[in-house]
Amino acid sequence: MTEILSSAEEIAARIPDGALLALPPEYAPCSMETIRALVRRGAKELRLLGVPQFGIQAELLIGSGCVAEVETAAVTLGEQGLAPRFTDAIKQQKIRMRDTTCPAIHAALQASEKGLPFMPLRGLIGTDILARRDDWRLGENPFGEDDPIVYLPAIRPDVALFHAPKADRNGNVWIGLRRELMMMAHASANACVTVEEIVDGDLLDDPQLAAGTIPGLYVSAIAPAERGAWPLGVPHLYERDNAHLARYAEMAKSQQGFDAYVDQWVNGRAAAE
Amino acid sequence: MSGIRTEEIMIATIARMLSGLSHVAVGAASPVPGSAALLARRLSGGALRVSLLGRVSNPTFTDGARELFDCAAQGRIDAFFLSGVQIDGQANINLVSIGDPDKPKARFPGSFGSAYLYFLVPRVILFRQDHSPRALVPKVDYVSAPGVSEPNVYRPGGPYALVTGRCVFDFDKDAGRFRLGSVHSGHTVEEIEKETGFDFEMPDGAVVPETEMPSREWIDLIRGPVGEEIRETYPDFASRMFGKA
Asked: Which CATH number does the domain A3-102+155-267 belong to among 3.40.1080.10, 1.10.3720.10, 3.40.50.720, 3.90.180.10?
């Protein structure tokens, strides 16, 4: 049964130190309220998986010393520029980095969805991404002739963490078009989700909603968090707060500025305004 | 019609390369190619399908971010766009770091989908407005995606051209190197040679053509409906180029 929790703080408590934590891209709803709760808790040694890339989520956790390792196709603040705490952590060798490419993350999660040990993937041959990944294998297409192909081990995250517009009390979570969240939930041992609202009834009873709904079967815990994606957006509900993200990018150029940001916007307030 | 911006020349140039195609996709951090694709769609009377990553309205895909890649692998995407913090003469691109990747002098976001789409999309157009020896180098420090592959590597796709703020290079697949295609108005071949860190072929014939300038009609489209359409995904770019909404 899905646990119905009361706050993002309680969701964060379900994410142990050292967990392999899968996080969505900024254009799918991100559970920023839980990210802030992880920072407040002082989470340690998290291993982050960007599905397939992320920005402010990774920034807040890396800058706060919560992260041991990152696997992702990119870390970026989009139009607000480079991710300064990530960049600094790489240059200072504070975190282990596993560079990859977007479809490799998707393929490795799809292997996990299917309960398979690996997935083959085109491309990659001749890249430094492949050259620097000792966990990947360059093999052969067993049905072809002289057709090299890369094999990726399945990735099974301990926790997938994201935000969604709504859920019901049976733990069904409506995600609409953002089906990478469905894949993340299928592929992970646990899915922990904050939602704008918990609604009455059962989302799976409505065929129009059911197709865009993650069944509670895959969902470990949900909690309400109104405007819980802020300063990122939720498609069709509220927009990304570009002015705030630009302010973050400016402040986080130095660790001192980042710490001031965290004091003001993570520790100094409980919820988004 | 004064004050045509470099970005507008690049947008028009890329749009011409998309003529007659059925489906182009646009990835992250690509406002200039995104505008070019939206211009090309208007010029095609809506026949060209444009999939713009990050766009909320008019979605093309319904199966999450992976659908773009699956679609490309099936040959359903005709053109895509990539850039690089470094691009070299063999069209290798670097989106990761400068110097030793373990102790880089500079670190950038990462390779995104390049290590896959460069192999699979038939017409990959490289773009980079900053045309300098720092960006266009003899050899990249990190290969996010290679320009050419061994003959036994499955590779229906690859580089088609490189559009910069100064010129257009066409990629010669057989030679595995760039050939200067045209030089934008106000720039010279001597300047291109000086500002390019890699060797390239010169075009056949004595005179290097000038890049075709966008017509009045195209400029009106770029600054009008295309600018408004790209604003949803790239508000900062649109404000910088076309003014506030």
From this structure: 3.40.1080.10
